[in-house]
Amino acid sequence: MCIVGNKISIVEAGALEPIISFLKSENPNLREYATASLLTLSVSPTNKPIISSCGAIPLLVNTLKDGSPQAKVDAVTALSNLSTHPENLSIILETNAMPFIVNLLNTCRKSSKIAEKCCALIESLVGYEEGRTALTSEEGGVLAVVEVLENGTPQSREHAVGALLRMCESDRCKYREPILREGVIPGLLELTVQGTPKSQPKARTLLQLLRESPYSRPEVEPDTLQNIVCDIISQIDGDDQSGKAKKMLAEMVQVSMEQSLRHLQQRALVCTPSDMPITSCASEVSSK
Question: Rounded to an integer, what distance in angstroms lies between the CA atom of residue 224 and that of residue 34?
């Protein structure tokens, strides 16, 4: 029997009832073992709605609030697993889990697996207005996501930019300022050139939404990334963030020029026969 099949069989055999009772125990060790068990069982898509129907989600949130360090890690991972079942998201929101998720995110390394799970859960929760309000209401909530966008793993950065993009797309007027205020621009600029295939377009779209006007420029003035960024920089308060953004933009231009030069050199090498002088090929390329 496959591993996932074993997890389903364990639940079908009635294991959830004692696990839930251990999760309610006053004994911290029992709660930690129970949380780890739910983490393992929550990997199965079949088990996700069954686990939530047993009342496990509020208990996992309590563990996220008051559990041991390891129990908190297991609890946020289990909640992240359970959140992929859409009906479970509303239950997680009802438990007011956001402050405890943000607290864990603030206390862990932004490049850690824990930060990845926290951001994945936040990205799911901000798909709802209650989640967006909870994140912006929590002191340091948006900043924690921005810090992951800057310093997280590639997967964490995908979740972070995805969360911020969801917020801005839902209500640009409401969430543009809270996001800009936390110094997101340098990290977004870096993502547009060094992010994963998923995070790059999200970063570009978010940059467009963060500018003063969300509408495209006239055709005579193309809506290039450079124009978008310059437009945003002109509105940023604070020399530190503006300076970082300008420096990042200059570096992006330099990288773009170097890439273009390498491309021209490669074309020259490809089109140059072995018995033809390089100067002849160079003139041929320049005439195209």
Answer: 53
Classified as helix, coil or strand, 221 is: coil
Q: What is the 3-state secondary structure (H, E, C) of 138-153?
A: CCCHHHHHHHHHHHCC
Give which of 177, 175, 150, 153 is closest to 164, Cα–Cα: 175
- Structure tokens belonging to residue 156: 């964490």
d(CA 113, CA 130): 26
Give me the amino acid identity at 91: I
- Structure-token match 């060094």, residue found: 194
Tokens matching residue 55: 């009342």
Q: What is the pLDDT of residues 270-279, one digit of tens each?
A: 444 444 343 4
Residues 6+ apart with CB under 8 A from 91: 52, 57, 58
For 2-16, write each residue's pLDDT tens digit: 566 789 999 999 999
Burial of 43 (0-12, 13-18, 19+ CB in 10 A): middle
CA-wise closest residue to 64 among 73, 54, 55? 73
Whole-angstrom CA distances from 48 to 4, 5, 83, 236 are 12, 14, 8, 44
- pLDDT tens by residue, 207-246: 999 986 555 444 444 455 556 555 555 555 555 555 555 5
> Cα(265)–Cα(128) distance, rounded to whole angstroms?
50
Lookup: tokens for 189: 């600029």
For residue 118, give the nearest of 179, 73, 84 by alpha carbon: 73
How is residue 127 written in tokens?
Answer: 């798909």
